[in-house]
Amino acid sequence: MSLLTPDQAAEALSISTRHLLHLTDDGALPFINIGRGARTIRRYEPADIEAFKNLRKQTTCQSTFERTARPERIRTSFKSPVADFQAALERRRSGKRAG
């Protein structure tokens, strides 16, 4: 089994090399240091790349899967009136239609 260079690993994940380095720095993707001393030379096992892809695989989009109810109003401690931009926009639109 041969190890992958950062360019090859990034290509296998369809991401940039910079993003790959961020993933390894964050600990999300393991690497093998083949460097000597203070210099780090990173290599990646193909099995680790596949395991990472399998962990990130999703079947549903979380943003559309489950809708949560939004609160009606958010209470504030400010004494200044809160601008209702939606109502102002509706007033403006209705004024243009009438005129």
From TrEMBL:
Domain Helix-turn-helix: 3-53
Domain of life: Bacteria
A Pfam family this chain is assigned to: HTH_17
Name this polypeptide is given: Helix-turn-helix domain-containing protein
